[in-house]
Amino acid sequence: MSNSIIVYTDGAARGNPGPGGYGAILMWGDKRKELSNGYKHTTNNRMELMAVIAALRALKKDNLHITVYSDSAYVVNAVEKGWLKNWLRTNFKGGKKNPDLWRLYHSLAQKHTVKFVWVKGHADNPYNNRCDELATAAADGNDLEEDAGYQPE
Questions:
Q1: How many CB atoms lie within 10 A of CB 142?
Q2: 53 within domain boundaries
Q3: Catalytic residue among 11, 20, 21, 38
Q4: Would residue 71 show up in a list of annotated catalytic residues for this protein?
Q5: Tens digits of per-residue pLDDT, 102-139?
Q6: Which is the catalytic residue, given 34, 122, 140, 145?
Q7: Structural domains of the chain, count
Q8: What pTM, to 2 d.p., does this model score?
């Protein structure tokens, strides 16, 4: 069993802000695991990031090589372009959004080597499309949780 994991993620919010959900697919070797959850009141960006966090939380080992495929330029660029390092260094000065989730992501990512790859959303990638289905179904679900960190504008 390799220590390389492939993760696809997507987030959705109805109304943005509004009811939201995330979907994630973890793949290693021939194994697959799907994750999703829905929230009463949240944003699309929070759900995009929550999908990544849920995937990292589901991992049982440390020191894995993880490639995350996401259609969220916000999430991909924050990590790959180093924005997050700056936000952490300046304590999210200037009203940068979602510091609770970014700090949680950062602490989970420290245990692994994580690389992000942007994929075009709603295109011909079956894994991204499945994550979209999981996220929207979760957003439309009945037993939605509170997104405790969501802060209205």
A1: 5
A2: yes
A3: 11
A4: yes
A5: 999 999 999 999 999 999 887 889 999 999 999 999 99
A6: 122
A7: 1
A8: 0.96
